[in-house]
Amino acid sequence: MTAYRELASRGISTRVAARLIGVPRATATRKRRIPVVGPAPIPANKIGDSDRRQILDVVNSESFVDLPSIQIYAQLLDAGTYLCSISTMYRVLNENQQVKDRRRLARHPARAIPELTATGQARSTRGTSNADVGIRCRRRIECPGRSR
Asked: How many whole angstroms separate alpha carbon 108 and alpha carbon 15?
């Protein structure tokens, strides 16, 4: 492609330069996709550590401790205070592992799963034998007057 650029810079038309090199003109004029290597530019409006601490102090204050970020943002705007955007607030909270349900949730103990254990032959801890259960089921199925 350097030969194409040299010909085009000397005043030869792009159509003729592409034909001389043997490359389609669309390919020759396409921008190169080589990524630029270097540090990413720092945005001009990037918040500093002191601003991040201020956001965390406000969000974790007594008046906002149980509220989600969107409500904190709305209440601060109603009061005439602008700390940051909603996305920045979520980003700061996520960096500090605070993006979760912010309410105080009740902790319930884990419930034990009930299980039947056999205490003898054809007996369970509930006190009925398997034969009694079978008899009751047969009678219910074979009841006269009940349609199947």
From this structure: 77
Helix, strand, coil percentages, rounded to 5, for the chain: 45, 5, 55
* 1/23 Cα distance (integer angstroms): 9
Residues in Cβ contact with 124 at an 8 Å cutoff, skipping those fewer than 6 apart: 116, 117, 118, 130
Question: What does the alpha-carbon distance between residue 4 and residue 137 come to, in Å, rounded to a whole number?
Answer: 91
Q: How far apart are CA 103 and CA 62, in angstroms?
A: 12
Model-level pTM greater than 0.70? no
Dihedral in degrees, nearest 10, Cα atoms 80, 86, 90, 96: -30
Q: Is 83 helix (H, G, I), strand (E, B) or coil?
A: coil
- Three-state secondary-structure class, residue 13: coil
Residue count (the chain): 148
Question: What does DSSP assign to residue 56?
Answer: H
* Token pair for 94: 């996520």
How far apart, in whole angstroms, are the C-alpha atoms of residue 146 and residue 148?
7
- The burial of 64, by beta-carbon neighbours within 10 Å (0-12 exposed, 13-18 middle, 19 or more buried), is given as middle
Q: In the predicted model, is pLDDT for residue 140 greater than 60?
A: no
